[in-house]
Specification:
Layout lengths: L2 E7 L4 H4 L5 H9 L1 E7 L5 H10 L3 H4 L16 H7 L3 E5 L17 E3 L17 H4 L6 H13 L8 E7 L19 H22 L7 E6 L32 H4 E7 L7 E8 L3 H9 L12 H6 L7 E5 L1 H6 L10 E6 L6 E6 L5 E5 L10 E2 L8
Parallel strand pairs: 1-5, 1-6, 2-8, 3-4, 3-5
Antiparallel strand pairs: 2-7, 6-7, 9-10, 10-11, 11-12, 12-13
């Protein structure tokens, strides 16, 4: 594995990613290993990506709110580790949540975080409304072009590269700029297909520039999903009971926390699937393990066993959101409280416990009997009996 390509398809639900409608995702799945049960640490872009880059849960890397914190000093990132090992490191990102202000550029030689201002001229980094921030983005064609240009500027004789490419198009507003020919059910899927189309362009250009994909470790993931207020059976937002949830940020249901994760590279089994539960915090330890490099202090752990055998122990998955505190400040929802959750996955069982931070509400969901998380039970004792 000479080169490393890390691709984030921001705001893409696992069920849509794995629907078979996205040709680029399907091509990568055919080349590598699909994780059917991957869980994000947070439904917010900077927090989730910080967990991917560091292998640490939010308490460990220091970013827990949308606008308050930067990456904690002393936490080592994947880019820092790869640069120290001799890799050229580059990134093209496309939204306010990955602005270098957060410290997520640490370890990158090249970090393109240019985005436009909001339509009214406001700096999007100062806006806490996740929907409004979606109006400031670098569109997929420009992400693919700039990322591919950076790779093309490097010859195969130079040191290997680590490229992070981030596509933000699936975020609200759902207005795909062009029809890319996918059989989509709604405008949100149209935006996912739009990102997917330019992901294919990026992969093609990387190969055309003399860097074969069969020498490249490719990791594709999404940082969180999207709640579409009734477009899908597991939605919860809007009139379905949670009017303060506008796409993502305030809730921890699988709608936003269950995400795609695909890993492919030389020596890994093609077209295989892993059904055991894993986490996005496992990505950085896995990449370093596959490359034979020293690891980082992490809450995640390598998935090499899962990748090479097609099996592996399911891992409890933690996630949190403190965004309700930021929503509460508007005065519209004074009772909102932060949430934490653990998605358990022992053999023959799959449950999730969601609880309020600073409140008393604790609910347990049986994800096998209730996959859409519509019948939560209050927790009375350790068994989850209510």
């Amino acid at each position: 594995m000479r080169n490393v390509l890390l691709v984030s398809l921001d705001t893409v639900r696992a069920d849509v990613a794995y629907s078979g409608k996205m040709a680029g995702i399907e091509a990568l799945r055919a080349r590598g290993v699909t994780f059917r049960q991957a869980i994000s640490s947070s439904p917010l872009t900077p927090i989730s990506h910080a967990s991917v880059f560091t292998g640490r849960q939010p308490a460990g890397h220091g970013i827990r709110h949308l606008l308050r914190e930067r990456l904690a000093p002393g936490v080592t990132t994947l880019a820092e580790r790869l640069r120290a090992a001799g890799y050229a490191t580059g990134a093209v990102v496309s939204c306010p949540g990955l602005n270098r202000w957060y410290g997520l550029d640490r370890g990158f030689d090249f970090y393109d975080d240019e985005i436009p201002r909001l339509p009214d001229g406001t700096d999007p980094l100062t806006v806490s409304d996740v929907k409004m921030r979606g109006l400031a983005l670098k569109r997929a064609p420009l992400v693919a072009e700039r990322a591919a240009d950076w790779v093309a500027s490097r010859s195969r004789e130079q040191r290997p590269f680590f490229l992070f490419a981030h596509f933000f198009d699936a975020h609200w507003p759902y207005e795909p700029p062009e029809d890319v020919g996918a059989d989509v059910a709604n405008p949100y899927e149209g935006e996912v297909a739009y990102s997917d189309h330019y992901l294919q362009r990026l992969l093609s250009r990387i190969e055309e520039s003399g860097h074969p994909l069969d020498e490249t470790l490719v990791v594709l993931f999404s940082d969180h999903g999207e709640d579409l207020a009734g477009w899908y059976p597991n939605d919860h937002s809007g009139e379905l009971g949670h009017p303060y949830e506008e796409g993502h940020g305030c809730l921890l249901f699988d709608t936003t926390q269950h995400v795609p994760l695909v890993v492919c590279g030389p020596g890994l089994p093609a077209g295989s699937e892993v059904t055991g539960q894993v986490r996005l915090v496992d990505i950085a330890p896995t990449v370093l393990d596959l490359l034979g490099l020293p690891g980082v202090e992490a809450d995640g752990a390598s998935l090499v066993e899962h990748l090479t055998t097609g099996a592996g122990t399911s891992r409890p998955a933690y996630c949190e959101t403190y965004y309700p505190e930021e929503r509460r400040r508007s005065g519209e929802y004074p009772d909102l409280l932060p949430l934490k959750a653990v998605r358990l996955s022992p053999d023959g069982d799959r449950r999730k416990v969601i609880w309020q931070v600073g409140g008393e509400a604790v609910e347990v969901y049986d994800l096998l009997a209730d996959p859409h998380e519509l019948r939560g039970r209050p927790l009375v004792d350790g068994s989850g009996a209510g």
